[in-house]
Amino acid sequence: MTDLTTLEADVLAQVAAAGDLAALDAVRVSALGKTGSISGLLKTLGAMSPDERKERGAAINVLRDRVQTALNDKKAALETAALDARLASETLDLTLPAPHRRRGSVHPTMQTMDEMIAIFAEMGFAVAEGPDIEDDFHNFTALNFPPKHPAREMHDTFFFNTKEDGERMLLRTHTSPVQVRTMVSQKPPIRIIAPGRTYRVDNDATHTPVFHQVEGLVIDKGIHMGHLKWTLETFLARFFETDAVTTQFRPHHFPFTEPSAEMDVQCDRSGGEIKIGQGTSWLEILGCGMVHPNVLRACGIDPDEYQGFAFGMGVDRLGMLKYGMPDLRDMWASDSRWLSHYGFSAFAAPNAASGLS
Ligand code: DAH
C-alpha cells in the first residue's frame, strides 16, 4: 500500500464515520483545508523533478477528487436524513379535532336590547334614533323641564364647555330626547321605540356612567293609560317568558308626562337572588305616563287632537334581572371569562319566530 492509498482509506473511513454535518465538515477541513493532509501533499510537489511531479501530482489529484466526491455524497446523505427526521417529528394529524379557541360573543346588554326590539317590533313599533350628544332643548326644555329647574341637576348631566353663542351641549341623560326629535319630524300616528346609550355622572353597583335605555312613544287619537298598561304588561310577559308577571303602577313625577307612574314587577327576593313571577316583593323597572300637553305643544302637536303615552326602561338592569348578573359594573369590565359565561352566540339573534333567548 502506498502512502496515498493509506491516506485515502483513512480519510474515507473518517467520512463514513461522520455522524452529522459538523463532524463531516471537520473531516473536510483536516483533509482539504489549507493545512489539511491532502493540501500538505500538494505543497511537496514544488521540490520534485518535473517527471516525478507529473506522476505524483496526478495521483494526488485523483485522491483529492475521490475524497471530495465522498464528502459530497455523505453531505447529501446527512441532509436527507436530517430532513426526513424533521418531517417525521413535525407531522400533523389532520383527523384530530381543532384546538379550543375562545370566540367572541354577543354582550348580554346587546342581546337584551335585541330581544326588546324584537318584541316591540312584533307589536308594530318602529325603531327611532337620535344623537348621543344633545342640546338643552331636546334633552330638557322640550320635555317640559323649566329653565334652571332642579330636575336638570338631578340628572347628573355631563356637560360640554359652553360654546361662543352661550349654548352648552351635553351627553343625553335619557333616551327621551328621541321622542322630541320624532314628534317634530313625523306626523301622528306615531309608534316608536328608541334604544340607545345614555350618560350620567354616577358610579356604583347599580349605576354606571354609561348605560342603555329603551324609550317608547305612542301618539294617536284617543290613547289612554289602558293602552300603556297593556303594552307594558304584554312586553314584560314576553320578555321574562312567563305569563305569571304581575305588575303595579305607582304614582310618580316626571316633567314630561302627566299623570306619571313607575311600574314595579312582583318578585321574590328571599333566596338572595331576585326571581320574577313569584314572591311578595316589588321591584321598580321603568318609568312611564301620558305625554304632557306641554311636550306635545313644544313639538307642534295639538294636545286637544292627539294624546299619547311614553315609557323608558333601563336595558342593562332588565338584562341583569333576566340573566341573573349581580353587579352592573361587570358589564363594563371586559373580563373575557365573564363574557364567555354570560355572552351569547352571534348566530342566536333574537327574533319572534325562533325564540328570544
Ligand atoms: N327619561 C326617564 C329617565 O331616564 C325615563 C322615563 C320615564 C321615560 C317616564 C319616559 C317616561 O318616556 O314616560 O329617568
Describe the structure.
The chain is built from 12 helices and 10 strands. The protein has 357 residues and is an alpha+beta fold. A hairpin with a 2-residue loop joins strand 6 and strand 7. The protein folds into 2 domains: 2-89; 108-342, Bira Bifunctional Protein, Domain 2 (BirA Bifunctional Protein, domain 2, 2-Layer Sandwich). It has helices at residues 3-17, 21-32, 37-43, 50-89, 108-122, 136-139, 150-154, 177-185, 225-240, 293-298, 315-323, 336-342, and strands at residues 126-127, 133-134, 170-171, 190-199, 210-220, 247-254, 257-268, 275-276, 281-291, 307-314. It binds 3,4-dihydroxyphenylalanine. 3,4-dihydroxyphenylalanine is lined by residues 174, 176, 215, 254, 257, 287-289, 310-312.
What layout of secondary structure does this protein have?
Layout: H1 3-17, H2 21-32, H3 37-43, H4 50-89, H5 108-122, E1 126-127, E2 133-134, H6 136-139, H7 150-154, E3 170-171, H8 177-185, E4 190-199, E5 210-220, H9 225-240, E6 247-254, E7 257-268, E8 275-276, E9 281-291, H10 293-298, E10 307-314, H11 315-323, H12 336-342
Parallel strand pairs: 1-4
Antiparallel strand pairs: 2-3, 4-5, 5-10, 6-7, 7-8, 7-9, 9-10
Helix pairs in contact: 1-4, 2-4, 5-11
The structure holds 3,4-dihydroxyphenylalanine.
